[in-house]
Amino acid sequence: xxxxxxxVAERNVVAILLAGLQRxxxxxxxxxxxxxxxxxxxxxxxxxxxxxxxxLLAERPLRGQTGIAHTRWxxxxxxxxxxxxxxxxxxxxxxxHNGIIENHEALRQSLSEQGYVFNxxxxxxxxxxxxHRYYQQTxxxxxxxxxxxxxxxxxxxxxxxCRQEPExxxxxxxxxxxxxxxxxxEHFIASDASALLPVTQxxxxxxxxxxxxxxxxxxxxxxxxxxxxxxxxxxxxxQADAVERGEYRHYMLKEIFEQPxxxxxxxxxxLQGQCIDPDLLGEGSAELLKxxxxxxxxxxxxxxxxGLVASYWLESLAHIPCHVxxxxxxxxxxxxxxxxxxFITISQSGETADTLAALEYAKTLGFDNTLSICxxxxxxxxxxxxxxxxxxxxxxxxxxxxxxxxxxxxVLLLLSTVVGRxxxxxxxxxxxxxxQALRKLPHxxxxxxxxxxxxxELAQTFAxxxxxxxxxxxxxxxxxxxxxxxxxxxSYIHAEAYPAGELKHGPLALIDADMPVVAVAPNDHLxxxxxxxxxxxQARGGxxxxxxxxxxxxxxxxxxxxxxxxAVNNISSPIxxxxxxxxxxxxxxxxxxxxxxxxxxxxxxxxxx
Length: 609
Ligand code: G6P
Known about the structure:
- This protein is of the alpha/beta class.
- It is built from 18 helices and 27 strands.
């Protein structure tokens, strides 16, 4: 959470910092601030979004060639101007921080005793006073920062400037991402490369424990032991406009409509005629996949639901037992590890703190083969895993995940099929059927998206509703869960999903005219069972919204609205049925007037526990 941008240049960096913050706003958006160093340190901070900071800067401009900026997602201390970053100490040192300092209370007490006055409720403020204290001894910002880091427990990405050294910026990371951008006689730092795309495409992804001392013409990187190190330079192929909204009203809508191309990109290079590349995870991986006897999946949020769908596929196509768990639970219990279990983490960002911690924990438990399914190649999760299976969804900015989810499902289906084939449990004919369905998938998605207008009308149902129930069966039960999550995340309507067979064990008591029930009802072997469950809702005066394919013969009536999505292949139907549910949540949110791309209290990358 929280976005950081910093720059050292010959030109005025304020516009660069502001543009960077705007591109990072998905990381947190409850307050924002910016500071520059010159003869004095100056800063501007606001409660609220980056746009408010831009307004303030228009009224009270700042200029500077060295600066840092921040967009916040509150952890310690409410969203307020006082708690907004940059924090500073004695007007000498200013700092922005992403992460959590776990020993902040002890540090606060000791610094208070030494006379430092705290002006915020944040954990961050201890760092800036600590650096100030060391600066009194070292008179050198780099060594003051390096000394301070030794006292910190917890996670951080930091960018720091100093009044006495106005042409210098120091940045450091441990547990939170930070990327160094290389310009021509200028250097930048950011939480995410996308923030810097308008100014550079050359990046160095800092490693755990790295500290970088940046000036206009030079950036020196030191590792956790203080040794000067060289790090590889990456050239990003992303264009600056890849993270722009274009003609769409919201990022989320853009990303929903990008799914056909995101799925095509994710499929590219992975099919060989009628087969899937058996070395799906890279050279030599077929050997690994041939030998695995079980799968443990760990993830959070939408990525967790992708894992749930995968468990159906892994068990039905590959006959491999699969256990799926949310990362925040897995990391605090005592799971049983076995060396022939493949441990899979799924994450759009590759930064989610609980997922990362679960992976590290799994390694200590004896899970010897780790695979991450991820959308960000340079992320900490990918780097910490033995194997990676990348989704090629492109940058996802809307806080509610859409194209990342469907591309995760796609690679999980590829993986399940490959394991089934390699272990001799899936026939070549079945693999051919799956490959054919996958080749058609981008086109089938386009057809699904043609339901937009019908879904928009359906969304009116939610105009005066506070609750909703989603039903599905089998592999579509996790899809119903994802549909409910989308609706609650962005429209703030309370939504729950149930396996339809569980209705009569509790949720049926909730059914009345104020509780719309959304059913995911593809034409599969469970459809007749599902229809009976839906009768139970209808008999109790509930309002049913049914997504089904045209073969299902479920007529609309006064209390039943049926959206026929066209014939859908069974194997790809979980991916395809996700799309109208995303559109439903989006349109319901528009009706409710919420902030679709930046829903209250949420952030896209949850880098704190
Ligand atoms: C946050 C986001 C969700 C996302 C979850 C896991 O809660 O708002 O959209 O599903 O984190 O994120 P990850 O990047 O690990 O997939």
